[in-house]
Amino acid sequence: MENYRNCYEKGWNLLLEAGIEEAALEARLLLEWVCGTDRNTLLAHGDRTLSTGERQAYEEAITRRRSRVPLQQITGCQAFMGLEFQVNGHVLVPRQDTEILVEEVMRELQDGMRVLDLCTGSGCILISLLHYSNGCTGVGTDISGEALAVARRNGAALLGAEKEYAFLESDLFDRVEGRYDVIVSNPPYIRREEIDTLLPEVRDHEPRMALDGGVDGLDFYRRIVAGSPSYLTGGGRLYLEIGWDQGDAVQELLLRQGFREVNVVQDYAGLDRVVCGYWPILNQHIPGK
Questions:
Q1: Averaged pLDDT for residues 220-243
Q2: DSSP output for 201-246
Q3: Structure pTM?
């Protein structure tokens, strides 16, 4: 029977051979996930014997990771904004970059506001905003029923019954009703020709519909910016996550539409990450007109 340390070292070497960049970390995380242990086990209890079931489960997890299945799809969870979200192959894995988007919304989010989250995926944006606010309500939309099933499970686990929210199967605004104080989205924004150049974890295992932003990567921004005025309250704000080289183009879309105080926000690496602006009260649109 192999002990804990030996299994870890074997997993580390196998991931290293497969070109996994953070092989040591991911081998340890997978072992902890299989055995229900923590990082101290390797240091203090490295001679712990693994059961046959644990060893087989670890070998299977390492094999999947060697084939470039994302770590988070193997474990079924990903931390985001201090919360644990369930994930699978039907949703994008929540990324630290998107926390910048949530943090920007929270700067202006006030108690009792209504939030609309377009392309909600796992629900991580809307759920985080509702979790860290008081009396806010929200709707998350996605065209994928499979993604919405994940979002609903996350909502039930992280928000409970005390929060008012819904997840709606809709192509952006198609089935949305009413007006919102905040519209937020991390839409597909990868240029179509660039998708095949992405890491295999993303290219082969995350949903293409959540990546493909059209020929120039701006298809969803055009639709969201054009449609938002009909669903924003006067003074309501629009927040969009963007690719690192899309700040000027998306900013221009908002300005041409009539949004005011349009800003490009950078992430911690100094790259453009969020574009936001507010819709003036005097420019109020009536849906359908």
A1: 97
A2: HHHTTS-GGGTB--SSS-HHHHHHHHHGGGTEEEEEEEEEE--TT-
A3: 0.93
